[in-house]
Design brief:
This protein is 79% helix and 2% strand. Strands 1-4 form a two-stranded antiparallel sheet. It has a two-stranded antiparallel sheet with strand order 2-3. Helix 1 crosses helix 2. It has one domain: NCX, central ion-binding region (A middle domain of Talin 1, Up-down Bundle), CATH 1.20.1420. The protein is mainly alpha-helical.
Length: 401
């Protein structure tokens, strides 16, 4: 049997499977909107997973029509829409019930730390397995992402210091995100390399490809809209019923469901030696999470509450955000030389894995201090990294000539 036929068959089955996963909740929710534990988490969770795959393929197809850097930004944005839906739902509920504030920040911090601590290293390990190379070289065109992430990370330390998330933070993060998207849109249009279901759909011709892309977005968006609230509330009910801490379920299980398709797509690209684009997509996702996502939380909170007050954070939320900021600072310093090396991936994964075993606030602050110390060693130990960071902040948002 020809390999091309097998590839197309597998692609068709993958698309069909994702459509079934996303559609099942649309049907089941219409028949019976309230399901018992654990089905109230599993069924909408599977719909979110299916929708995330559909969104990622649709966004990959969009790369054929727009500049590559902008396409990567849009791909990353669309890929994390399921996570946005869950997080914004918690922030909206927090405007009416302050108990939900913790869950909004739990999902946000968990998603960010998971992306860097697990996603980035796994991409390099997959690339090493596929090519035996122990380093990913990033394209200089991704300077905009790295610079944006650096600025957003520096500002993020302000949040635990003042103990609130407010509309001032929204203004800063959303402005930074708009600048980032404008800068990405000015990049040169490079022909994208597609694989899997996206490559299969691309063979259909321009009109059918664009129609399919629109259908994928509509179906995925409908599934996410209907699944976000039941999934979020189902997590809380599961915690109450099974005696599991709700904060931890929201912090780790929700991001795993929403980001697993993105991780899988990135790993597949890395195995095919497209590690630069693979890691670039995850970096763009981090930028989106650390600008648009965190900026949307106070806005959703204020709209729900009907007033312009800030979201007040308790000691645990302050601790989690500080640790997330410290991890992000070390991660962006690692990328400051446009290389991601094997020892850096091992360090990120090891620190992420070990810190999860110690929920003590004291230990977590020690890990945050360790991230900051490693950052200072990297930036002040090598002049090359310092100069690159200065150049990034000075030149990245200049209009292309």
């Amino acid at each position: 049997m020809p390999q091309r036929f097998v590839d197309r068959l597998l692609s068709g089955l993958a698309v069909l499977g994702a459509i079934v996963l996303a559609s099942q909740w649309i049907v089941l929710h219409a028949v019976h909107p309230h399901w018992p534990v654990p089905w109230n988490v599993l069924l909408p969770g599977l719909a979110i997973v299916g929708a995330a795959f559909l969104l990622s393929w649709g966004a990959e197809l969009a790369q054929m029509d727009i500049p590559q850097a902008l396409a990567l930004a849009i791909l990353a944005l669309i890929a994390v829409l399921p996570e946005y839906a869950v997080d914004v739902y918690f922030a909206w509920k927090a405007g009416k019930d302050p108990a939900y504030v913790a869950f909004a920040t739990a999902n946000m911090t968990g998603a960010n730390r998971l992306l860097i601590g697990l996603g980035w290293p796994v991409v390099l390990f997959a690339y090493w397995i596929g090519s035996r190379r122990r380093e990913i070289q990033l394209d200089r065109a991704q300077a905009v992402e790295i610079a944006t992430l650096f600025v957003a990370t520096l500002y993020s330390f302000v949040i635990p210091l003042k103990g609130t998330l407010s509309l001032v933070d929204t203004l800063f993060f959303l402005t930074l995100f708009v600048i980032y998207m404008i800068s990405a849109s000015r990049s040169e249009h490079v022909e994208s390399e597609l694989a899997g279901p996206a490559a299969w759909i691309a063979l259909w011709g321009v009109p059918r490809r664009r129609a399919a892309m629109g259908a994928l977005f509509i179906l995925a968006g409908s599934a996410i809209f209907l699944a976000a609230e039941p999934f979020a509330e189902g997590l809380l009910e599961m915690g109450r019923t099974w005696g599991i801490e709700q904060f931890l379920l929201v912090q780790w299980l929700a991001p795993l469901a929403s980001e697993s398709p993105e991780f899988l797509v990135a790993i597949l690209f890395a195995l095919r030696a497209s590690a630069g684009a693979s890691l670039g997509t995850l970096i763009s996702s981090k930028v989106n999470q650390w600008t648009l996502l965190i900026g949307m939380l106070p806005l959703a909170y204020c709209l729900s509450a009907g007033r312009l007050g800030p979201m007040h954070l308790d000691s645990r939320q302050i601790e989690e955000i500080f640790l997330t900021s410290a991890q992000s600072l070390f991660a962006v310093s690692v990328l400051s030389n446009f290389r991601f090396e094997f020892w850096e991936a091992v360090t990120l994964l090891a620190l992420f894995s070990v810190q999860m075993l110690f929920p003590s606030p004291t230990i977590r602050y020690l890990f945050a201090g360790l991230y900051i110390t490693l950052t200072l060693i990297l930036l002040f130990g090598k002049a090359e990294r310092r100069h690159t960071v200065i150049s990034l902040l000075r030149d990245s948002w200049r209009p292309a000539r």
